Predict the 3D structure of the following.
Amino acid sequence: MDAVRLIVTSRRALATGGGVPDLLTEMWQAQALAQAIGSRLALVGPPQLRDEATGLADLAGHGIGVLDRTPLDSGEPRAARLTELGDTRACLMHLGGLLGDVGIALVGIACAADDEATYWSCVEAIDAADEARDRVRDMLRKLADREAAPPRREAV
């Protein structure tokens, strides 16, 4: 499935999530998707984005580990359905939005947490989501810089 479709599905699921366990599962799904997209971009994306894409995959992986929540259903993670990235810019724009939604949802859960362990794992996951979103912004900036640069002329 196309990355943008998966991201839109994740954003909808996060927006309509029920209680805390459902929201944490959707955040886990979103981080897994960010990790898969980062890994794919690191392998086949534009060369100037590969370092940041590797960093994105690492940060999203950290977010997965902090949340320590596997999907409630027995099916495969949504990220496993990723077959193509499509337009890199559109993919990154949507992914940045998803990571922003994850951060906002985590703030809500952290503020309502009854125990310190949940609070601190949310704080760490917020940091991971914010840093991953920063990587996405860096990649979008590099794409914009590449498009704004005048075309290179070959020597005659």
